[in-house]
Amino acid sequence: MYIDTPEVATKKQKEEIRRNPDAEPWYSIFGGRYQGDHPPFYNREQLPWTKMLEDNWKIIRDELLGLIEEHPDRLQPYKINKSMSFPPKRWKTMGLIFWNMKNHNNCNRCPQTMKILKSLPGCTSASLSILEPQSNINPHQGDTDAVIRCHMGLSIPGTLPDCGFQVDNDIRAWEEGKTLPFCDARTHTAWNHTSERRYIMILDVMRPEFSNRKNEICAHVLASAAVQMLYQKYDFLRRRKRYIKKMIYHFVRAVMFIYLPFQRISLKRQPK
Predict the structure, then answer these.
(1) Residue 155, C-beta contacts closer than 8 angstroms, at least 6 positions apart
(2) pLDDT in tens, 195-236
(3) Extended strands (E) in 101-161
(4) What is the largest CA-CA distance in the chain?
(5) Which fold has domain 7-266?
(6) What is the per-residue pLDDT across 113-144, written as a single tens digit (0 to 9) for each?
(7) Burial class (CB in 10 A: 0-12, 13-18, 19+), 92
(8) Domain ranges of the chain
(9) Are 25 and 142 in contact (CB under 8 A)?
């Protein structure tokens, strides 16, 4: 297993902070359509941590796919926005880390994968993502531009035009063992029109200029996710004034900002 040390990444983070001291992240919940200048896809050769993932991709694949083979119930349809996939419930995930909140039951069963993720600079989210045959993930924007989102192919049933991924007007195919880092804030969509499941790993790495604001940004996005789920579940909220949504959002954000530093300790459980 190849694991790099974080010293180089830390130096780059400090350099990026010095270059962009006034940088502010964009958030989708109240930010409107993304108008930033980040490209649809990033050059993975300029992101050293992508090589770390690619060098260890078989370890990650075997551990994650082995766990869902043993416990298929750990896979769940994507819940935050149930209209995201078509047909419904065809996009499924098994979460490890969600905006700095760990699913300890899953993490404890994937020790080698977690060791790799811990070596990444500023990893805030990681999950196994499955797209069922003859399914689409509808076009959508992500929650923020504060992270670099990355897909890594684990088991890919086909290539373009039958199975692929699009960010703005740029269309790419997944490849097993290869990463696709992209700007999650830009509109993107995915499809699997083959007869087999598509398996990828999805992860987020904090952009270096925001590395010292990790908990703040994660609290923002967790609050946004909570608001989306509440408004999806309770129709009466949609008829309320916009300020109600903002009140809920700011309250949840404050709670999460306080809670995040402690949850990794308080939620630890034994493997099942």
Answers:
(1) 61, 65, 176, 197, 198, 199
(2) 999 999 999 999 999 999 999 999 999 999 999 888 888 888
(3) 101-102, 123-131, 135-140, 147-155
(4) 53
(5) Jelly Rolls (2.60.120)
(6) 999 999 999 999 999 999 999 999 999 999 99
(7) buried
(8) 7-266
(9) no
